[in-house]
Specification:
Elements: H1 2-8, E1 13-16, E2 20-23, H2 37-50, H3 59-94, H4 101-143, H5 152-155, H6 166-186, H7 195-220, H8 224-266
Antiparallel strand pairs: 1-2
């Protein structure tokens, strides 16, 4: 009776006019005791059957994201030097020194050009990163039931409050679950330490906080002291952004390698 009751709630059952309830996986009458070994053994296959969408390539998106982050890192170095030069000029004026109008104009033009280049490159970098991030989570969602839908991999970056933790949760899930799937297929113990994920997210939160402070200070600046504080904040932002860019590149490279390894294992 227990077998029949369990089969009645199973979506893989079918009804045979002569035999009654029959397993849709084995085409046999149930033979298990209390739990169905056939269903457990085929759960992954059933999930793949239900989600027939193919795994999509993500290596080129990873390369695009990495290239743009390198560009941002170079501009971070450039911005750091430029901000230091600007602070030096402001400190000279604060100490009662004199700077020519041409020197001040040259500084302003340099800061404007670097700022525009940095903004444009950062926007493109964000787009390429999210494209890679979303594709990675899409592929994981095809392979297993994830904690969130694929859309959250992109949308979570733009929702207040949720943007403070959801992207981290998704990246951590991608990292751990992909490592588990590789380990299951190779019978090897694969390191899935999330230290790199935690470091990446901590730097991201801190850098964004300092960056927002620098932006607000620059827009509200009225006195020489305000501009000096804003410039210091810009310098700190650049100093934080450089390791952030580097750790992001490391994270993308490592996960792209995991993705490729898993894809090869699945298709051998």
């Amino acid at each position: 009776m227990d077998k029949i009751n369990i089969c009645k709630t199973c979506t893989n059952k079918k009804f045979d006019r002569d035999r009654g309830i029959v397993c849709g996986l084995t085409d046999q009458k149930p033979t298990f005791e209390n739990s169905c070994s056939d269903y457990n053994a085929n759960e992954a296959a059933l999930f793949q059957e239900k989600n027939k969408a193919p795994i999509k390539p993500n290596s080129q998106r990873a390369k695009n994201a990495i290239i743009l982050i390198w560009c941002v890192m170079i501009l971070d170095f450039t911005s750091l030097v430029s901000s230091y030069l600007q602070y030096d000029l402001l400190a000279t004026v604060d100490a009662g020194g004199f700077i020519s109008e041409g020197t001040a104009e040259l500084n302003d033009n340099r800061e404007l050009i670097i700022g525009l280049l940095y903004s444009i490159t950062s926007i493109i970098s964000i787009i390429t990163f999210i494209q890679w991030f979303r594709r990675g989570y899409y592929n994981l969602n095809i392979r297993k039931n994830c904690a969130h839908s694929e859309g959250w991999a992109a949308g979570s970056w733009f929702v207040p409050i949720i943007s403070l933790f959801r992207p981290y949760q998704i990246m951590k899930e991608m990292w751990i679950e992909t490592s588990k799937m590789i380990a299951d297929k190779t019978s090897d113990t694969l390191k899935s330490s999330t230290v790199v994920i935690g470091t990446w997210w901590t730097l991201w939160i801190i850098t964004n906080y300092v960056s927002n402070y620098a932006l607000k200070s620059g827009l509200k600046g009225e006195t020489l002291s305000d501009y000096m504080n804003s410039t210091i904040a810009d310098i700190v932002t650049s100093i934080l952004s450089i390791p952030l860019a580097y750790i992001t590149i490391v994270m993308i490279k490592h996960y792209a390698h995991k993705e490729q390894q898993l894809f090869l294992l699945e298709n051998n």
